[in-house]
């Protein structure tokens, strides 16, 4: 493997893979799954959003092609398995964990928007891919546990990712890279952290 | 955007997008979803069948590429949000709504068969794609709400779409376009409307 | 259709298609589905794993392209419909049925690994595709019935398929075809049959 320069987006993406895998593993451990099921839930939560994104634009999921990302996902699974007995179910509510998870949401939304623009989809498509890359993994693992995806019911979580897609698409027409990516990450991260801080939510009907 | 001549299939397809989006929105509003979830359910019901069809034949979903269809889907979402408080849950049982929904089923089945033949799939594949394009959106939104897709349990709804696929495939070998498309639409629409009129259903086992 | 020489892998694959379709049909008949739903569950259980595999590597599912496999799947559906009233729900526990199902799991895992290597995925990707091809159909049909896929909860079923993927990937670097395929089939079949014989399971957490 060639040693490529590692930028802030790569670091943020790795943090996101770890956080998402840990979140999925904890969700699986709380449910009535065996060891295989728990690991599948962790890996799927980490890779599911990117896999949906790639399949929709006709690419083989990068998680099946490269090996870097897998290492981070397994770090997340291992961390969750090690920590979960000690933190007794409160790990997912820990501010540090929620902060790292928000970083993951922001970078995943940015990669979704990047892939969408490269594939020539519409503005609507960019927003869909940014959102789906951010929330797809968690939603797929919810579905495997036969739960209505939490992002459809409550929690100001998908909305920041969708906003990030809007920001990316509108800015990429006027600003050179990496400005759209940076703007997307900043907007997602800021709105998600504010939502956590002030307990934002969307109304029902 | 160039102004292309608009044929009856385009009109029927637009009606279907509106009706399916409205049906999904109403389904989401009845469930315990927030505003984001309700809109997702409407859009997914409208685009889900076509997206499954496109992914199966290796195409990026047209709903992510073009902007025309999105407008119709959002019209359906908006109509449902405006009308649902006034018609108090009965909108989906209204004969007009069921008729427009049947038009959507018929045109979606025809586009599924058309895409399947163009992709060189087998006769079985054409029937699968016609059926899936017609019922896939509603089934995906059922799954998001953790419900067994209604088309698997009751309701003479998937069967007309499958019949339309059979009619398209058998007629396209002997008749030039647009005869297979027309025959498919007519057969789906007729069997679906008869099923509604006479309360048809398939037996269980 | 040209008459091609039929090897043991083709025979095993056909047995698997029949067994998986029968298992899905029986599952659908036990649930509250109509006739269409029961047939869909049988066909999806038979083809679902291969369809997921093909979509992930950017191919149109072979089940939509060729007609041979469909014949075997419908044989499985018909057998299940004929036998289920007589064996009264015990068909799935019959040793013969479980043996044929294990043959299917083994050959499906091998085709998943083969397709993965041909598509140039990573070792992790080969294991994922082998496992998903083996257990994907049953898991999709579980999800349609809004059940947590049984392979995530109990049953030493996905683990043999994953082991088969590992064996295929490690052996294909050093041994010519068809040794990796044979090794994969043998390992999956042996571990699955031993698991059935000795009631193996994975621990929870």
Strand and helix layout:
Three copies of one chain form a homotrimer.
Chain A: H1 8-30, H2 35-56, H3 62-65, H4 68-87, H5 95-118, H6 123-144, H7 150-153, H8 158-172, H9 179-198
Helix pairs in contact in A: 1-2, 1-4, 1-5, 2-4, 2-5, 2-6, 5-6, 5-8, 5-9, 6-8, 8-9
What does this structure look like?
Three copies of one chain form a homotrimer. By secondary structure, the first copy, chain A, is mostly helical. Chain A has one domain. The first copy, chain A, is built from nine helices and no strands. The radius of gyration of chain A is 16 Å and the shape is globular. Chains in contact: A-B, A-C, B-C. Chain A binds chain B through residues 55-58, 116, 119-125, 128-129, 143, 146-149, 151-154, 158-159, 162, 201-205, and chain B through 28-29, 31-38, 40-41, 51, 55, 58-61, 63-67, 70, 81, 84, 143-146.
The structure class of chain A reads mainly alpha
Series of secondary-structure elements of chain A, N-terminal to C-terminal = HHHHHHHHH
Global outline of chain A: globular
Give the helix level of chain A as a range of percent: over 70%
Mean pLDDT of chain A: 91
Question: What Rg of chain A do the Cα atoms give?
Answer: 16 Å
Compute the number of helices of chain A: 9
Largest interface: A-B, 31 and 30 residues
The CA-CA distance between the termini of chain A, in Å, is: 52 Å
Query: What's the oligomerization state?
Result: homotrimer
């Amino acid at each position: 493997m060639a040693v490529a320069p590692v930028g802030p987006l790569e670091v943020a993406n790795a943090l996101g893979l770890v956080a998402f895998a840990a979140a999925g593993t904890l969700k699986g451990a709380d449910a009535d799954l065996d060891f295989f099921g728990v690991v599948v839930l962790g890996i799927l939560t980490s890779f599911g959003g990117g896999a949906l994104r790639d399949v929709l634009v006709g690419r083989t999921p990068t998680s099946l092609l490269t090996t870097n990302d897998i290492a981070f996902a397994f770090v997340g699974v291992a961390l969750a398995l090690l920590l979960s007995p000690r933190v007794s179910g409160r790990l997912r509510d820990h501010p540090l964990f929620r902060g790292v998870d928000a970083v993951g949401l922001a970078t995943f939304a940015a990669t979704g928007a990047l892939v969408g623009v490269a594939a020539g989809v519409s503005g609507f498509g960019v927003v869909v891919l940014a959102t789906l890359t951010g929330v797809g993994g968690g939603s797929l693992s919810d579905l495997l546990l036969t739960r209505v995806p939490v992002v459809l019911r409550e929690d100001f979580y998908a909305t920041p990712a969708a906003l990030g897609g809007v920001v990316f698409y509108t800015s990429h027409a006027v600003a050179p890279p990496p400005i759209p990516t940076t703007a997307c990450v900043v907007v997602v991260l800021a709105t998600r952290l504010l939502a956590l801080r002030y307990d934002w939510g969307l109304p029902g009907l």
